[in-house]
Amino acid sequence: MPTPARTLFDKVWAAHEVTPETEAAPAVLYIDLHLIHEVTSPQAFSVLRERGLPVRRPERTLGTMDHSTPTQTNQVFGGAPIAVDSAARQVEALARNCAEFGVELLALRHAQRGIVHVIGPELGMSQPGKTIVCGDSHTSTHGAMGALAFGIGTTEVGHVLATQCLLQRKPKSLALNVEGRLGAAVTAKDLILGIIGQIGVAGGTGHVIEYRGSAIRALQMDERLTVCNMSIEAGARAGMIAPDETTYQYLAGRPRAPRGAAWDAAVARWRTLPTDAGARFDREVSIDAGAIEPMITYGTNPGMVIPISASIPRRPGDAAFARALSYMGLNAGEPIKDQKVNVVFLGSCTNARLSDLRAAADVLRGKRIARGITMLVVPGSQEVKRQAESEGLDQVFLDAGAQWRESGCSMCLGMNGDLVGRGEYCVSTSNRNFEGRQGAGARTLLASPVTAAACALTGRVTDPRDLL
Amino acid sequence: MEPFTTLTSRTVVMPAANIDTDQIIPARFLTTTTRQGLGAQLFTDWRYDAAGAARPEFVLNRPESAGCQVLVAGRNFGCGSSREHAPWALLDHGFRAVISTELADIFRGNALKNGLLPVIVDEATSGWLMGNPGAQVRLDVAAGTLTLSTGIHVSFPLEAFARHCLLRGVDELGHLLDRRAAIDAFEQRS
Ligand code: SF4
């Protein structure tokens, strides 16, 4: 009998079942790669200590510091102490925990440190066919490599440390078929914002999304990472993209990718992963890439998004909608264009890879940002920072009047003191525009790096196509 | 974890949809290294104004909310970040169950692992609960039922393993540790 046609997700899932799920109990799923950071791991290590348990496979866990770490060079490399006390304590706790349990840590001054979802692919650790987890919802990012990658809670971080496994029910599958070509100044960020606008912030709940179609195949690796990153913003458990030549070219020669014969064997294995012809998904949705415009959010969740040339919709009688607009200080029926901006944040695991910095620098080169605008450029990793500097991008940003920082999550969630002020408008390349996400009372407008740079130049919400 | 068999309590109603974990517990309180004490910061930006004074109109600040252990929330409650601090904060405040028409996946898993009962109900039941804030309800884990003050029983989905863990007060780590032999065998063959 021929084997039934299977999806990429089916294949990766099946290859990691230690025991399959039954009516009575979830599957025991083996985890290949576990990434940890300072914010969601301390209580997990406490549980190991309370129960006298070791880390089962320390070499399968890698620690980094990103969420609460400073981005000011003098706090990272100079003599200045970390400004936020509790953050300093968390960073110390992670260092202590990793040392005690034998887990590798890319500590604050390490040359390979960075945002956890940027360094996994960058180091070549996030590979096709792997199961990857982290106590962070944007772990979905790594699915762009053809991995099954999802965020977990702290209790589960403890489970993986102790057993290298998780108890999981198999989610459903959702095929997102994206055909056509993205237009000028329309980026992967606009694509995923457009998708979330279409399917909604709970549109993927209970599902693993596979992004498919000609528009996805045409994306470079950095762009695929941006798309998968925001799967969680559609409520999905994970997002995946089948590995192909783009994936292999990206991985070849990376510090922790296989080499020599092991590389050839790995690629041969990876080539068997893509979804078989005729495989069934639980749901399918079609998206026309050609219809996507530069997008921007106007509300307090990523589904409240419109083309930048459009007006904010009217939803009479919807109290939650009215509340969101009042928080944002915006009016239904009015265009978003020309809305005043105070802060521009170019950073986060969504859009702080080298190609993102290049795209923004192309808009800013030889120009000055508008008077009164604060622009923060925070590379996704120390490696991205180094590469950007070797291309002179730091100088482009500095000459334009922006700040150039050390890597970290920074203003994406404002844990390290990089905050947007109450009532201020921030055009941000990050992934969440929730109330208070960038600081109490802060108003976030999510957009692509190109749009963010355009807004920095004018000090107002600006369609990047107007500057082409 | 304490066993969870039944719970009888009045409800607190927060009708908004898509209440995300950044609202439940903002990131600036995540620099803690313990699980305790987060209840004080639950919904902090809705509960307190910029000067730190309680906003009297916010539901948790109303006297009738004191002692309520069941939160009724709008659709897609708990979306956003995977922070387990969200169920920790809800539990620390005194909640033991959250009722909604839809709960975000990671939040739901985190809630169960900490003995916070996630209860998914249909639109009609949700509508009734929203329209009757403070109503007394009864939750029965073994039967998987929610009983309204009208006497109506509504069943809610709870998979067998989660039910088992709640009723016995056992956690998943013990279950996984018991499967060491299978994990060893898996590592051998892969
Ligand atoms: S950059 Fe933002 S979304 Fe990404 S891991 Fe950091 S805090 Fe989370």
3D structure, described in words:
The complex is a heterodimer of chains A (468) and B (190). Chain A has a five-stranded parallel sheet. Helices cover 31% and strands 16% of the residues of chain A. Chain A is globular and about 60 Å long. With 468 residues, chain A is of the alpha/beta class. Chain A starts with 7 loop residues before the first helix and ends in a 10-residue tail after the last helix. Chain A folds into three domains: 8-168, Aconitase, domain 3 (2-Layer Sandwich); 172-243 and 250-256 and 268-290, Aconitase, Domain 2 (3-Layer(aba) Sandwich), CATH 3.40.1060; 295-467, Aconitase, domain 3 (2-Layer Sandwich). Chain B has 190 residues and is an alpha/beta fold. Chain B has one domain (6-189): Aconitase, domain 4 (Alpha-Beta Barrel), CATH 3.20.19.10. In chain B, 32% of the residues lie in helices and 17% in strands. Chain B is built from eight helices and seven strands. Chain B has a seven-stranded mixed sheet. In chain B, helix 4 links the parallel strand 3 and strand 4 (117-120). The radius of gyration of chain B is 18 Å and the shape is globular. The chains are: A alpha/beta (468), B alpha/beta (190). Chains A and B meet through helix 2, helix 4, helix 6, strand 8 and helix 12 of A and helix 4, helix 6, helix 7 and helix 8 of B. Residues 66-67, 115, 117, 136, 138, 348-349, 409, 412-413, 430-431 of chain A line the site of iron/sulfur cluster (SF4).
